[in-house]
From TrEMBL:
The protein's name: (5-formylfuran-3-yl)methyl phosphate synthase
One Pfam family per UniProt: 4HFCP_synth
Lineage of the species this protein comes from: Bacteria, Pseudomonadati, Pseudomonadota, Gammaproteobacteria, Methylococcales
Transmembrane spans: none
Source taxon at top rank: Bacteria
Response regulatory domain mapped to chain residues: 236-349
Reaction(s) the record says it catalyses: 2 D-glyceraldehyde 3-phosphate = 4-(hydroxymethyl)-2-furancarboxaldehyde phosphate + phosphate + 2 H2O
Residues annotated with 4-aspartylphosphate modification: D285
Major enzyme class: lyase
CDD domains cross-referenced by the UniProt entry: REC_hyHK_CKI1_RcsC-like
Protein function: Catalyzes the formation of 4-(hydroxymethyl)-2-furancarboxaldehyde phosphate (4-HFC-P) from two molecules of glyceraldehyde-3-P (GA-3-P).
EC number of the protein: 4.2.3.153
Family matches, as SMART domains: REC (SM00448)
Length: 349
């Protein structure tokens, strides 16, 4: 399902976007360039006011591709508490060195690389970004006077970009002066997000104030297109467990009962799969490396994702179940998992 990203430049606009139920609030200053940044103090105040009711992304500005400059800007923005940090990859400079420097940051930072369609970017960089720990990639436009994304890049290239991101299980966004008329043409590629600014403003002026009616019109158009997309796979379950044996046992139980199963080894990878696919149910081990089951479910609920999920553990301590439910799990399954109980639980969805 494709979601809506709305770019805002103030607390007032962020609250307007929140009231309109946009899927992600993106913080930037359009008057300062393609990816102009807001002051970190303002970003922090917006994060505090939104209080987890919507995921928030923020840009670090139109920076030269110099490793130390970009690295320090990302570190500073991470301290604001935003969920995603967008980094523009502008022409020139040291792309490889910048990516290698950013790869040293904690993998808990959700970095999104922004490539500019009107600069003919080399999509081969996406593999490098994935290896460096980036969570996603976006296509945008640098020069807003050249038209929308669909006017500066061939549809075949846009489709290739989305496909490459999907193959690497990376979040994928499309933006760049998009208008209402662009939605129907881009939705069949199934990007995770379509990003808007100018189309949400008075008279399509990206530096003007947001207009609530325009936000609602764009949101409704995306929802309508989502309803027209082909149905997703039914009876699909995600298993997240760092033990290969445990994954195989659970998968075997489910597959014998007609379920399609995807298996991953940690919570971070589970979130990537959930953001890319539709699942009926998720079985999540509490004790995993990189990101535990508790951390994973908290992150999922912060995204307002209602996917039904069961925590799996030996639950030798009584308080563990209470902690799991408090974090956002719907059910708890004690190892060793009983096949009949497992199937009955999933059929409750």
């Amino acid at each position: 399902m494709t979601k809506m990203l709305a770019s805002v430049n103030s607390l007032e606009e962020a609250l307007l976007a929140l009231a309109a139920n946009v899927d992600i609030i993106d913080l930037k200053q359009p008057a300062s360039g393609a990816l102009g940044a807001l002051e970190t103090a303002l970003v922090s105040s917006i994060v505090l006011a939104v209080n987890g009711r919507s995921p928030i992304s923020a840009t670090v500005g139109d920076l030269p591709m110099q490793p130390e400059i970009v690295y320090l800007a990302v570190e500073a923005m991470a301290e604001t508490g935003v969920d995603y940090i967008k980094i523009g990859f502008f022409p020139g400079g040291d792309w490889r060195g910048t990516i290698e420097k950013l790869a040293t940051l904690p993998r808990t930072m959700n970095l999104i690389a922004v490539l500019f369609a009107d600069t003919q970017p080399d999509f081969a960089v996406i593999d490098m970004l994935k290896s460096a720990g980036f969570k996603g990639v976006m296509l945008d436009t640098m020069n807003k006077n050249n038209g929308s994304l669909t006017q500066v890049m061939a549809k075949a290239d846009i489709a290739q970009f989305v496909r490459l991101a999907n193959d690497l299980s990376m979040l994928c966004g499309l933006a760049g002066s998009l208008r209402l008329d662009d939605i129907a043409g881009l939705m069949p590629y199934r990007p995770d997000y379509l990003g808007f600014r100018g189309a949400l403003c008075l008279e399509h002026n990206r530096t003007a104030q947001l207009n609530k009616a325009s936000i609602m019109q764009i949101k409704q158009a995306i929802d309508d297109q989502n309803s027209q997309q082909p149905a997703t796979v039914e009876n699909r379950v995600l298993i997240a467990d760092d033990s290969e044996i445990n994954r195989l046992i659970l998968a075997n139980m489910l597959e014998l009962n007609g379920y399609t199963v995807d298996s991953v080894a940690d919570g971070a990878e589970a979130l990537e799969f959930i953001n890319k696919n539709q699942y009926e149910f998720a079985l999540i081990d509490l004790g995993m490396p990189v990101m535990s089951g508790l951390e994973m479910i908290r992150a999922l609920r912060k995204q307002r994702n209602p996917l039904k999920a069961a925590a799996i553990s030996t639950f030798t301590v009584a308080s563990q179940k209470a902690e799991a439910f408090s974090a956002g799990f719907d059910y708890c399954l004690t190892r060793p998992v009983d096949e009949d109980q497992l199937n009955a639980l999933i059929n409750l969805r």
